[in-house]
Predict the structure.
Amino acid sequence: MLERDPRTIYPGHGPIVLDAKAKLREYLEHRAEREEQILTGLAAGDRTVEALVERIYADHPADVQELAARSVTAHLLKLETEGRAAKAGRASARAWTIIEPKACARCGRPVKGRARYCGSCSLALLQGDAAGSA
Ligand SMILES: [Zn+2]
């Protein structure tokens, strides 16, 4: 959005934002800061969304916890897509860990979790196998 050189944001609700670029930058910096806190939490041994929420939103009122949990989950899924975090276990007992980003063994793009190939390569290889041409 920043590349499009916006000047004014007309949000769906709330006041008009006149300095659009500053506001967008503020959002992005906040996101980066939150991601840093999540990585720090994981590195310190936090394994669950609940533990991360407790650490990061400790000084927030209890009624934001649910929203906080959704935000933390979104960040974790983004980190997973980037190959920087991995999850284990099912929903109720999900444990997250920090991992070293891995490159796809076929194309070099970041791999999700501990997989050997990225999504498109896994699919391509599967289809190749099915056609007997791999
Ligand atoms: Zn690949």
The pocket of zinc ion is lined by residues 104, 106-107, 109, 117-118, 120-121 (CB under 6 Å). The chain has two domains: 2-100, 102-134. The first strand starts at residue 85 and ends at 88. The chain has a mean pLDDT of 84.
